[in-house]
Design a protein that fits this description.
- The chain is of the alpha/beta class and about 450 residues long.
- The chain contains 10 helices and 20 strands.
- Strand 1, helix 1 and strand 2 form a beta-alpha-beta unit.
- It is globular and about 65 Å long.
- The structure holds flavin-adenine dinucleotide.
- Flavin-adenine dinucleotide binds next to helix 1, strand 15, strand 19 and helix 10.
Amino acid sequence: MRKANPLRIGILGAGVAGLAAAWELTRAGHQVECYEAAPQVGGLAAGFREPEWEWSLEKFYHHWFTNDRDALRLIDEIGARDQLRILRPKTSIWIDGHSYRTELSPASLSLPLSPLALARMAFTILYLKFTRNWAALEGVTADRWLRRWLGDEGYEGLFRPLLIGKFADAFDQVNMAWFWARAVKRTTKLATFAGGFQAFNEALAAAVRAQGAQIHLNAPVRALQFPQGQPTLETPQGRQRFDRVLITGSPRLLLRLAPQLAETDYGAQLRSLRSIGAICAIFSLREPLLTDGTYWLSLPAQSADRSRNEFPFLVLVEHTNFIDRRHFNGEHLIYCGDYVPSDHEYFQLDEASLLARFRAALPKVNANFRDDWLRRSWLFRAPYAQPVPTLHHSAHIPPSQTPLPGLFWVSMSQVYPWDRGTNYAIELARRAAALMVGETLPIMARS
Ligand SMILES: Cc1cc2nc3c(=O)[nH]c(=O)nc-3n(C[C@H](O)[C@H](O)[C@H](O)COP(=O)(O)OP(=O)(O)OC[C@H]3O[C@@H](n4cnc5c(N)ncnc54)[C@H](O)[C@@H]3O)c2cc1C
């Protein structure tokens, strides 16, 4: 549908948010040009495919929950529902040299906690699952709230180590509303897209192009200016003037492109947002590592200093215990993932040293592991990967409409109280798209 007076809209970034915004805006009849610095679409949810593989593999492990409504709706809209695959993989936690199931089931009763600690844990999770008043929880840290409700044994034994793993030394600053959202949102069934998330990204990009948008790859935007009050992007295709511009990405990126925001209240909000980075090492093995079929193995951390923990990373994900390895030439694919601040040594160490450090920990979960199981490996690092929601976070989130003319922003840092994810990138993008063309969307019932 072409509008009589379409707006010319520039989007920086062809991650899921940029593509979802392009989908909405072209659907409403506007002209969209999307600029992506990378050679492929998908951003943090992008994947890669070796020539022997039928499916792509995400650079950072990805799945959807079955209640990720905005993602499922978009998949429907682009006519790709038949590509959705819903599975029920096993999730576990590593405690004192053993793996324990973590889904809420009779199996979790085997966790090495006293009956009283188990009962407190079950009661706390049930309470969190049924309460809706998350706003009341954002004034207290998860560290304090959980210790009070679970007691020292349950908190120290289970949740504190998980918080340390996820947020490193910021673990005791994260608010309880974030934890509530994690407990409420998790589903035992998980979903993916046939061909992997990259196949979803490509399907979305194809749908967006079919509606008339241009997606420029290898096209980093170098500057943003406002001649005659109109947002203008400096791109490899030259200076492009737009009626509206949407920036997707980190608060730091927005401040770099629009330094004039620094002196505004909006800029102060941007600067107050905290985040940490993510590291993923991927190993292709000849044999399975987690032989009990576990997909997701949480590795509790006792210290934010990774060198003082049993494992130098937070989670071990055996992708091929989720997705059949026949799609990957029969290879067993393992992620070793961690979240650390962007100035952590994991961002400075050379690739070979970091891979060697992570690989050395693999025999701890499978004593039969031998170095000759290893076929090949990859390493991915993202300095902006996980926002850290501190106390009263809702008061610090800048809206999508910036104070600069025609300039809008969508970012993981605006996702709240939910944990960031492609579902929310889509929701935020949809909302921002409506705002850019002068509509407001009703708040959807949240799952
Ligand atoms: C370890 C990890 C695990 C995750 N697990 C899941 C999961 O299981 N399920 C889930 O749904 N989500 C998951 N996520 C989150 C999900 O990846 C993100 O929420 C989502 O991809 C964010 O999309 P975005 O478009 O907002 O940002 P991004 O993906 O960061 O996209 C921004 C884009 O802008 C581009 N860009 C930056 N600067 C410029 C420039 N100057 N010019 C042009 N382009 C530029 C970047 O290259 C990028 O493509 C995970 C993330 C990580 C790191």
